[in-house]
Write a structure and sequence with these properties.
heterodimer; A: mainly alpha; 4 helices; about 65% helix; B: mainly alpha; 7 helices; 2 strands
Chain lengths: ~120, ~220
């Protein structure tokens, strides 16, 4: 196995071609979701495709799949804490929105149409 | 280098790697350092994206519709997110050429490594060029970090901060890749024992830039 040689990451080219192709395919799907009606289905699709692409880039293109567990844990472990930050700030954001609506009322902003 | 990596794998391997009074990660130091830098960069971009989420949730003004704001008219049709789709395509293509460059580096095929890295840098420069076009277009339409005609003011500040910081990473990556590519070409690494780990380390940075774009594309442009 390549990782026994201390980080030498030489793999058959086929795996790169395959993942490269998948990345194009998944990105095309991502773009396609822009034509879907808004809703939980579209949001789930956006997030699922995003995570699939991200995992593929880290594991295959960045070779994390073949690294030792000590390195995997050191790099992939800490970002889990970001999940807590997302939860906290979403909670805070909704609270701020509620107080704004309660004290300032609904928005009176009238958007202009977009021209190109 | 080889003796730094224990034969034990799994969780027992983690304990082994941390407890043996030697370097923990059985990879070249440059690669460990690049990973740790990328981890810190992950937190920076996460802070930007989480702030964007917070202001988008908390504003009472309507959020501008990204597929209209970033749409372009082509052949008489309004195509949503056209430029962004092309930029995504360019960046993914560059990620593939970079992965191949790393592989060719390990095979000590200097010529192919050099040209694949140059191609990656050229695609990266194309991406930055298209981003400059996008910024110019939005600024001419009146989008500013403090206001815009299409909806909540926070749209502009989030947009310029997030894509600007990402674009800066791409620009730095283009310079980094060209420096390394030139050294591959002129035999710099050959004179130092023919070790092409540096190509993989530069590749890690480049793939990270693509990785960040995956999140920006999903959370800012599609959401």
């Amino acid at each position: 196995m390549a990782d026994k040689e201390g980080g030498h990451q030489e793999h058959p080219l086929g795996i790169y071609w395959l993942f490269w192709f998948l990345l194009f395919l998944l990105s095309a799907f991502s773009y396609w979701t822009d034509f879907w009606p808004d809703g939980i289905l579209r949001q789930t699709a956006i997030l699922t495709l995003m995570l699939a692409k991200a995992a593929g880039i880290v594991y295959i293109f960045m070779h994390m799949w073949w690294e030792r567990l000590a390195l995997k844990l050191a790099i992939l472990g800490p970002p889990v804490a970001i999940g807590v930050l997302i939860w906290l700030m979403a909670y805070e954001g909704h609270y701020t929105e509620d107080t704004r609506e309660e004290y300032y009322g609904e928005s009176t902003f009238e958007p202009e149409p977009v021209h190109h | 280098m080889t003796d730094a990596v224990a034969e034990v794998g799994g969780t027992a391997g983690v304990a082994e790697d941390w407890a043996r009074d030697k370097q923990v990660f059985g990879v070249p130091w440059g690669k460990a350092m690049m990973w740790i830098f990328l981890l810190s960069d992950t937190f920076i971009f996460s802070c930007f994206l989480v702030s964007y989420m917070t202001v988008r949730i908390s504003t009472t003004d309507p959020w501008p519709n990204p597929s209209e704001v970033f749409g372009l008219s082509a052949f008489g049709y309004n195509v949503p997110l056209l430029l962004i789709a092309i930029m995504t395509f360019v960046l993914i293509t560059s990620s593939g050429t970079m992965a191949l460059a790393v592989n060719m580096g390990y095979r000590k095929d200097r010529k192919k490594t050099f040209w694949l890295m140059v191609a990656t840098a050229a695609l990266g420069a194309t991406f930055v060029g298209m981003q400059a076009f996008e910024w110019t277009k939005l600024i001419m339409e009146g989008v500013r970090p403090w206001q815009n005609p299409f909806g909540a003011a926070q749209f502009g500040s989030s947009f310029f901060m997030i894509t600007g910081f990402h674009g800066m990473h791409v620009s730095a990556g283009v310079i980094y890749l060209l420096v390394v590519a030139n050294r591959v070409r002129n035999g710099f690494y050959e004179r130092r024992g023919g070790n092409y780990e540096i190509v993989e380390i530069a590749g890690l940075y480049w793939h990270f830039v693509d990785l960040v774009w995956v999140f920006i594309f999903a959370l800012f442009y599609l959401w």
